[in-house]
Amino acid sequence: MKKQFANNLHSKTFSNKFVLFSVAVIVFIVSIIACVTVVGNTSSNQNSTTITTEAEEATGPTNTAGWWIDEGRYSIEWFTNAQSVVIDGVTYKAGTKQNPYIIATAQDLAGLSWLVYTCGQSGNPLVSGTDYSSAYTFRGKYFKQTANIDLSEYYWQPIGTYYNRSGSTSQHYFSGSYDGGRNAVSGIFTPSGSTNAYSHQGLFGYICANGSSYPMTIENIGITNSNIQGDFQVGGVVGEASASSGTITITNCYNTGSVTGSSYVGGVVGYAVASGTLTITNCYNTGSVSGGGDNVGGVVGYAYVSSSSSAIYISKCANLGDITLTGSSSYVGGIIGYVRVSSASGILQVANCYSEGTIFVQGASATVGGFVGGAYANYSRYSKVYFEFCAVDMNVSTSGGGSISSQGAFYGGINVVTAKNSYSILNGAKSLTSTVNEMDNNFAYILNFKDGKPLPLGLYAISQFGTETNIVERINAL
Fold first, then answer.
1. 452: which DSSP letter?
2. Exposure string (b/e) for 221-250, b if CB count within 10 Å is 16 or more?
3. Which residue pairs, CB below 8 angstroms and at least 24 apart, start in 436-441?
4. Residue 111 has what DSSP assignment?
5. Mind listing the pLDDT tens digit for each residue in 200-217?
6. Is the dihedral of CA 251, 442, 434, 397 positive or negative?
7. Which has the higher per-residue pLDDT, 129 or 192?
8. What per-residue confidence (pLDDT) applies to 377?
9. Mean of pLDDT values over 249-261
10. pLDDT of residue 384
11. Cβ proximity of 158 and 164 under 8 Å
12. How far lies 120's CA from each of 72, 108, 134, 167, in Å?
């Protein structure tokens, strides 16, 4: 079923340059700004590129003894030689939105990683107060990727860290805005381990927005043919996204490689935390997601609203990858592994999201939810925590001593999350939320497509398929 669905959604040929295929084309983004993303590398003189979203088999770098940030393997010329430009009579310094730093090669991207990782050290040209402030590097700066980048030659050091490779605390967060230019990064390989040195893994390891004057965005980037491993805070695109006192937007991003960690593991983001505002939209995962510990989700591993007047919004996101649990007890969800809101005024809203695949529980005791595996059980704090216009179609399988301690169509464990106008099919059993009066015109239905199941808007182009009514009746008739 999953393969057929993926082929129907993604097996489309696009001419000329490649375009990043984000959930938005599978789907509806606001038609004009739909981002299309390409899988793999191609040259500009190719006539066409075939899109695929099948999970890829990737092992390790061609040189297992080396790292991209080792001397002689990275370039920072894009930074040291950057010049101001004049546009319509106005001068813009390098690193501004109008004149972003240009990342064109693997060496350039490795140079960005090196600059952040060694910030404040001898030989690093970043200037305190200009290029970084405390642990926040490139705050208020902008980057633009102009080509597909292959990182398969060496191990990757994620951009932004909390711990260094020795396991010591070394807080150098990436706080800039990165536009992937609708290009892909392939061949990301990170070594596995079970110490702090292996935390915060992904293309970006730790991103942090600090201050309302410095909003940051990660956008228009795809991760392909990669094997991202680590201990905790592991994600296909971002290991940890922290909107500490500012705003983060992660949009039009996807992952098709494998993601493996212990705890806080997600197909797109491993750990999402906000004491400001964090938005994840138009993102998807089709790669396998594996966790050996706690809090594992198809899109996000752990979503935490940590203070009052803060919020996390997740919308128009999809997971088509299988999820595997091993080791200790764990919370697992098709969309999010675990949610927590620490303030009565905190907001966590998930809308127009979809997950499909199988959850394999191997040697672990799991709490399983179609949407979310578990939630912090303070009932009074969940009036603003809900899923709406979402759908899941998943199976749960146990083996090797694995067991299910609790399982729910929408959420596992204690019911403290509201699901509205949504449905779940878990191991073939259909469940509809009690609030289904607004499902009409918020789901698309295509005859003989996706086994006749209605799917949330945002996952199809409205202009092509339109919306439908009688959604509840159609679900009940499946």
1. G
2. bbbbbbbbbbbbbbbbbbbbbbbbbbbbbb
3. 436/471, 436/472, 439/389, 439/471, 439/472, 440/467, 440/468, 440/469, 440/470, 440/471, 441/467, 441/468, 441/469
4. H
5. 999 999 999 988 899 999
6. negative
7. 129
8. 54
9. 97
10. 76
11. no
12. 20, 19, 9, 18
Q: Tell me the two tokens of residue 147.
A: 């080509």
Overall average pLDDT of the 326-335 stretch? 86
Q: What is the C-alpha to C-alpha distance for residues 299 and 321, in angstroms, rounded to an integer?
A: 9
pLDDT at 255: 97
* Cα–Cα distance, 190 to 284 (Å, whole number): 21
The closest of 107, 132, 106 to 120, measured between CA atoms, is: 132
Q: What's the token pair of residue 326?
A: 């091993």
100 assigned to some structural domain: no
Q: Which amino acid is at 32?
A: I
462, 30 in Cβ contact below 8 A?
no
Does any domain span residue 392? yes
Transcribe 330-354 into DSSP letters: EEEESSEEEEEE-STT-EEEEES-E
- CB contact at 8 A, 378 and 416: yes
Taking the C-alpha atoms of residue 29 and residue 219, their distance in angstroms, rounded to an integer, is 14
Cα–Cα distance for residue pair 253/233, rounded to 1 Å: 18
Residue at 362 is within a domain: yes
Q: Is 72 exposed, middle or buried (0-12, 13-18, 19+ CB in 10 A)?
A: exposed
Q: Is residue 131 part of a domain?
A: no
Distances (CA, A) of 283 to 99, 329, 335, 355: 26, 28, 12, 12
Tell me how far apart the alpha carbons of residues 359 and 368 are, in angstroms, rounded to a whole number.
Answer: 9
Q: Classify residue 389 by its DSSP letter.
A: S
| 350, 386 Cβ separation under 8 angstroms | yes
Residue 118 φ/ψ region, left for φ over 0, alpha for ψ in the -120 to 50 degree band, beta for the rest:
alpha
pLDDT value of residue 308 = 82
The 10 Å CB-count burial string (b at 16+, else e) for 291-300 is: bbbbbbbbbb
Which stretches of 223-320 are DSSP H helices?
none
| The two structure tokens encoding residue 388 | 């709406």
Whole-number average pLDDT of the chain = 84
| Number of domains comprising the chain | 1
Range of the domain at 281: 2-77+105-111+141-476
Distance CA(52)–CA(38), nearest Å, equals 8
